[in-house]
Amino acid sequence: MMQTLPIDPLLPELCKELAASRVAVLEAPPGAGKTTRVPVALLEAGVSGGGQVLVAEPRRLAARMAARRVASEHSERLGGRIGYRVRFEEAAGPETRVLYVTEGMLLRQLLADPKLSGVGAVVLDEFHERHLDTDLLLTLLSRLRKQTRPDLSLLVMSATLDAEPVAAFLDECPRLRSEGRMFPVEIEHLAEPDDRPLEKQVVSAVRRLLDLDPNGDVLVFLPGAGEIRRAQAALEPLAAERQLSVVPLHGDLPMAEQARAIEPSRERKVVLSTNVAESSVTIDGVTGVVDSGLARIAQHSPWTGLPSLVTAKISRASAVQRAGRAGRTAPGRVLRLYTKGDFQSRVEHDSPELLRADLAEALLTLHGAGIGSADSVAWLSPPPPARVAAAEELLNVLGALDPAQGLTAIGRRMLELPLHPRLARVMVEGERRGVGERAALIAALLGERDLRLSSRTDFGGGRAGADTATGPSDVLELVDAFELARSLNFQPQRLRSHGLEPRSVEAVAKAERQLTRLLPKKRREPEYDDDSEQALLQTLLTGFADRVARRRKPQGLDIVLASGKTARLSPSSVVRNEEFLLAIDVEERGGKAGINDGVVRLASAIRPEWLLDLYGDRVSASDELTWNAQAERVESLSRMCYGAVVLDESRGAARPSAEASAVLAAAVVDFGAQEFLKGDALTALIERFALAAKHYPGQSLPPLDESTLKARVLALCEGATTFAELRALDVPAALVANLSSAERRLLEEALPERVRLPGGRSVAVHYEPGKPPFIESRLQDFFGMADGPRLCGGALPLTLHLLAPNGRAVQVTSDLAGFWERHYPGIRRELMRRYPRHSWPEDGRHAEPPPPRPPRR
Ligand code: ADP
Ligand code: MG
Predict the structure, then answer these.
(1) What is the pLDDT of residues 50-66, one digit of tens each?
(2) Alpha-carbon gap, residue 606 to 169, rounded angstroms
């Protein structure tokens, strides 16, 4: 005769509702009988129409235990009508009608058989936990119902009474609830936080519960297997003293041991459990609960997205659930190992994992189901767009998506592997490069905790030494450490003495075994040599291609990542020399953004050529023009970049171009245009312009002020790339050339560069600042001129420097007529005396000038 459970009276109505509307939500507190009673009831009422009833559990443990319990309640063989299927383990056959599966298995089944043929009803159990897969399943199943399987029954079961939103999401489906009974529970908090080790606190709390209440079992909530083991050891004396049966309960235990925690025992029982006992497993007879207030929750590294488990404070809702476990069958008592203030400061509910998790794996699944974009389907809580975008980008980098957003062959293979897409990609690449087994080990190593007791430990036999060990990859160090463990036959004592943590090693070994089984047909891999090491390093690149980094300085610890972020290598990394590397495992550090945001625990060397080979489309080439102040020239800087990481850089003289001229001009401005505006010719030209302005105010030339001149120099940068070219330029000529023809005519006629004297000699006109313009020539050259030459149409007499045959001026005058008149007679006598062989006619004004001499020098 089966025990009656609170849910029993509700079963007929539930089956009727579901048969009518095909979708419903059931709310009932833990222990009500949802998991063990509902699925068989659905089957027997024909809700699944002869098809299978699939029950999705978030935990393997729950799936196995429930199937076992239900089979035994019906006195049936497990794996007959009632069965289960979890990863790598199943008890099911062709006659199985009620199949308990993990959520992950159901997702896989959906991908393999999108119509779920043969399945008549799906039950999503423990919905309130809102794991990522739970939400994903809800989305996929409600879509399946709408699109192709309206006959498929869908029941969502929740242990909390707040399933209204999911009923609304399922088109306002019927919502049934069973409030169950609940006895009063007395809750005690700590007055002060207790900072003793957790296991000591547990012993005190258990002792106190035993003292306060003469009967009833005790359930202790601890975060994980490690804490459970320590508490079990610490409880030994008390157990012996009080004849207690202390039993652990967590997912990694063999099924028989898990069953022992649930089965009644003759002694008073103390169950040490993870949060599986919070709602997925019910232990009868518990009246005392000790709540550590902690749980191990899945977290995702913000850098790599790789999942990891962290110990965190549970929410108030969870604490209330845990407390409720003491009052199921009789009044109970709860000791919380934290203060009331601590309880009150906690978050009310845990947020759905979908809202905080890395979404790469979920999106890979969606793509696998033919859903190209996350917002083309309906979500109970839509995933944050930024996370969706980041995950899409990662899948693209990993080569999982084709241009049409479908899966590539690589993506499809990744989907078959129970790994985060990064690690799946590593394994796929390993298969392709003939190092699949090694890649599977690497995936196991990176997916589990570090197996080294401390990263500073000397492994003895391994390649690693102490802090000074050097190598191409910290991941290969891990591989060596694991091989060392294997050679020690995984014996805990020996592992520990070699600095390895036995439980982590065990977890890696287990994962490795499971992954290796997924490799294509067994073919012995060759011995590992340098080639396979290279292959492995390249294989790692494919899983972490977005984590490419470059050292800032040779041998330094600071690196720049392709994302533009910076980080620091852990001093324990063996990658000490390589310039290019992958930042595989990064520990986020709080701090100012942009400054060493993370510490890279695991790095692995790469070569830039690999990026060109494998990610050519992500390598960008850029040509940038820069000013080299030393060489005073524009240079072109050619760069090849992978994101913010510069792979290669070369400099050379720039070829002339509009851009190069602009860079040169900018350098001129920086340097000062004055540098290029020196020289007598320019001074003379400025003077000529000034004179023109004075004598022709109406039609003056454009002003040659500083800004005009500067503009001219800048214009001259056109076609040039160096200061040397600018210095060689004839700026005055360029200025004149730039005038209009009328302006040029004015300048050349009114203020010529040279004038011709009567004897035919052409002499240069000197224009100097602060002096009137002048010419100089031998006195004899002026013979025959009544008056001196004039500029500006006669308005400006030239000053004449009259030279003796020795080249010295005998007179400076602007009045030639007055000179002939007053000074020439006396000067003539003197000249006749000193230069008797020259002819010195008496009347210079009418004398014949001598023929022009060839110019001196
Ligand atoms: P719910 O899913 O609503 O939390 P369950 O169906 O898991 O409830 O359990 C209902 C009741 O069945 C529990 O209160 C417990 O008494 C009993 N039960 C369930 N599983 C087992 C088991 N493996 N061994 C013994 N009793 C069990
Ligand atoms: Mg249940």
Answers:
(1) 899 999 999 999 999 99
(2) 48
d(CA 106, CA 455): 39
Note the ligand closest to the C-alpha atom of 78: 1
DSSP string, 218-261: EEEE-SSHHHHHHHHHHHHHHHHHHTEEEEEE-TTS-HHHHHHH
- Asked whether 261 lines ligand 1 (CB < 6 A), one says no
Residue closest via CA to ligand 1's atom 21 equals 69
The residue whose CA has the least distance to atom 7 of ligand 1 is 35
Q: In terms of C-beta density within 10 A (0-12 exposed, 13-18 middle, 19 or more buried), how is residue 149 classed?
A: buried
Residue 69 Cβ inside 6 Å of ligand 1? The answer reads yes
Q: Which ligand is nearest to the CA of 38?
A: 1
Q: What are the residues facing 163 on neighbouring strands?
A: none
Which tokens is 747 given? 């300048």
pLDDT in tens, 297-335: 888 777 777 777 889 999 999 999 999 999 988 999 999
Task: Give pairs for 741-748: CB < 8 Å, separation 24+.
Answer: 743/701, 743/702, 746/692, 746/696, 746/699, 746/701, 747/688, 747/689, 747/692, 747/701
**What is the dihedral sign for C-alpha 57, 58, 63, 65?**
negative
Burial status of residue 853 (CB atoms within 10 A of its CB: 0-12, 13-18, 19 or more): exposed
Structure-block tokens of residue 611:
């990026």
In degrees and rounded to multiples of 5, residue 557 shows phi and psi of: -100, -20
Let me know: does 51 contact 96? Beta carbons within 8 Å: no
Torsion, Cα of 93, 97, 100, 104 (10° steps): 80
Q: Which ligand is nearest to the CA of 41?
A: 1
Residue owning tokens 């400061």: 345
Closest ligand 1 atom, CA of 125?
2
282 ligand 1 Cβ < 6 A? yes
Distances in Å between the Cα of 395 and the Cα atoms of 41, 359, 361, 392 are 42, 10, 9, 5
Question: Global pTM?
Answer: 0.77
For residue 26, give the H/E element and its range: strand 23-27
758-782: pLDDT as tens digits: 878 889 999 998 899 999 999 988 9
Cα torsion for 519, 520, 524, 530, to the nearest 10°? Answer: -70
Please answer whether residues 785 and 793 qualify as being in contact, where contact means their C-beta atoms are separated by less than 8 angstroms: no
Q: Which two tokens stand for residue 753?
A: 């560069």
CB 427 within 8 A of CB 436: yes
Ligand 1 close to Cβ of residue 28 (< 6 A): yes
Helices 103-112 and 132-147, interaxial angle, to 10°?
40
d(CA 282, CA 285): 9
162 Cβ neighbours under 8 A, 6+ residues apart? 27, 128
**Alpha carbon distance 224, 274 (integer Å):** 6
